[in-house]
Amino acid sequence: MGHDMARATLRESFRDVAFTTAVPFSDDGCDVLVDELADNLARQYDAGARLFIACGNTGEYYALTDEERTRIVRTHVEATGDGATIAGGVGGSLEEVRRLADAYADAGADAVMVMHPDHTYAHEDGLRSYYHRICDATDLGVVVYKRGPEITRDVICELSERENVVAVKFAVDDIAEFSQTVADAPGDVTWVNGIAERYALAFALEGAAGYTTGLGNFAPAATLALFDAVENEDWERARSIQRLLRPIEDLREESGTGTLPAANNVPVVKYGMDLAGYTGGAVRDPLVDLDDDDAARLEEYYERLRTTALGKTT
Description:
Layout: H1 3-13, E1 17-20, H2 34-46, E2 51-54, H3 66-79, E3 85-90, H4 94-107, E4 111-114, H5 124-137, E5 141-146, H6 153-159, E6 165-170, H7 175-184, E7 190-193, H8 200-205, E8 210-213, H9 220-231, H10 235-252, H11 265-275, H12 292-306
Parallel strand pairs: 1-2, 1-8, 2-3, 3-4, 4-5, 5-6, 6-7, 7-8
Helix pairs in contact: 2-3, 3-4, 4-5, 6-7, 9-10, 10-11, 10-12, 11-12
């Protein structure tokens, strides 16, 4: 397959539900449970998942070592089938990104997703240079991940013309900005709604060909049914599934017993996995497990989801 054809195929593979996978840890948080991770992934693949983003925020990227990240990406490649596309999160210094990208390539990954920059004093021109140099450093596909204003529309538009930028994960609740960015970007990239099921309908209408999911870790059938309904413009079915999932997504946005928004995000996914017969495992600092009240709410929401027919698009 030629280089251009391979890139086109990779861009096409992001027109799907991107499963941002959670990593099960031992009870003390010290070890990655590799066998359990592999089993989770194989079951998600069997349920229909084909696009996996390893070592993202749902995968507790910032709580992992580079050695663990590489092993997790390799496990994704080995545990899923030939039809799977695997992207691995990268971030930090250019040298660290290069090393990780090389390790992911050796492990068989298809792309890297560049984590939203966490540098306190970033400059727009510096970020532009950072992404260009990442593109220069790897033959893997590159996914740009926007979670805030630091990555501007101008930077995204410029990067869209890079040959190995295959997708943009747009994870900001701003439909007007998303719509304008899609309209302005000259390059051929796949636009991915990075804020999951609640926004699947609105972002699809404005140009998102796929979306990321966290709750797909434990409810793959539901999120794939939603994607099917959106893709087929069966809006009534799509809205009904979206309403079924919304309480779980709302719970993920809550702070738990603390005060920081979305502190529940990953713990909800992991407890949901335990409820559904996957291995969620413990979280690592700075995350904490769900409190009893929130766990009871999730049990109620999951039971409703588990016992509700998802219907089919005719």
